[in-house]
Amino acid sequence: MNLRNRHTGGPQSPGQAGAIGKDANLPAGDSRTRAVALRYEHARGAPSVVAKGTGIVADEILRRAEEAGVFVHKSRELVGMLMQVDLDARVPPALYTAVAEILAWVYRQDERVAQRLGPLQGVPGGSVPPGAAPNLPALPSLSKPTSKPVSKLAPTAKPKSPNQLKR
């Protein structure tokens, strides 16, 4: 799964305050893309950050994802927080819910992904049978399937606080 963020260079909104906004790692007005790639393997526990970058590095992450048909989710807030996670490190517990909702949606959309990744932790019964939806609320921004192999979708609900990463 890849997550992407394109900065608009516009004024800072209240939701961008603190360490996760456009001013956190990039100069004001910077419109470079930021991307984070995650890997989830059931046997290893929480997903890990396997690639991240800005500008041409982010563009390369997204290009490779598109070529491989890997799911891409657009979320400024989540990408901002995941950019703070070290490479090869596990996603912190504060972000489990946001990442799990995205993984659950991917499972519902593509049974091949569900079969390849195995059981989805945190889902009642431990797995999502092919063609079945886990007992999780639908993500409004993710409710419409797309014909493209790479989906660029609206952001999920933003995390409560950027300070949750500092635990």
Could you describe the 3D structure shown?
By secondary structure, this protein is an alpha+beta fold. It has one domain: secretion proteins EscU (name from scop), CATH 3.40.1690.10. It is 25% helix and 13% strand. The longest helix is centred in the middle third of the chain and has 14 residues, at 96-109.
- Binned, the helix content reads 10-25%
Which strand order do you get reading across the main beta sheet? 3-2-1-4
Beta-strand portion reads: 5-15%
Mean pLDDT: 65
**CATH architect. name:** 3-Layer(aba) Sandwich
User: Can you count the beta strands?
Assistant: 4
CATH C-level class is Alpha Beta
